[in-house]
């Protein structure tokens, strides 16, 4: 069965990013996938300390012990990753940046320790209407996974959002399509 993880970079109580990720996951589940939502922005995930302990031994991952620790196995086991973030001051959120930097631990002295064949896709939400304005942030969201060997799908970027209730049916439909495609 295809395993899909949805990783959310918004801690907002009523998050449009979360709603889009959950919509995609629910569609994937209906299509037969096993899914799990990870509320990464609300977890205790520190930034990378740059100690390079992960580069000393191909068998050893990150030595920092926090909420990222159990996620390494879940990430590795997943066939597909949906990673989403709102835009904050022109960037992805700080919380999701900490998560992304910690993926560096998958790069051991002998190369990527990440299971091959993984797919990844980004979801970006923003207030500004121009959905091309922060397209680079979608690349940054999936960049770590891509560097470690994952293939990257077309991102879903939704502008004009100031509250989760602003999500239009067509954006939710696009999230459903994204989730269904990953479950194939
Ligand atoms: C701290 C902060 C900074 C923001 N900066 C931007 C920005 O630079 N550009 C933009 O288009 N929207 C910006 N927004 C709006 C959010 O990106 C937008 O409302 C997004 O959909 C929120 O997602 P969420 O509901 O999942 O938290 C900002 C919102 C916050 C709270």
UniProtKB/TrEMBL annotation:
UniProt KW keywords: Flavoprotein, FMN
Annotated ranges, domain NADPH-dependent FMN reductase-like: 2-152
GO molecular function, one term: oxidoreductase activity
Pfam families per the UniProt record, alphabetical: FMN_red (PF03358)
Record flagged with keyword Ribosomal protein: no
Family: Belongs to the SsuE family. Isf subfamily.
Protein name (Swiss-Prot/TrEMBL): NADPH-dependent FMN reductase-like domain-containing protein
Source species of the chain: Methanorbis rubei
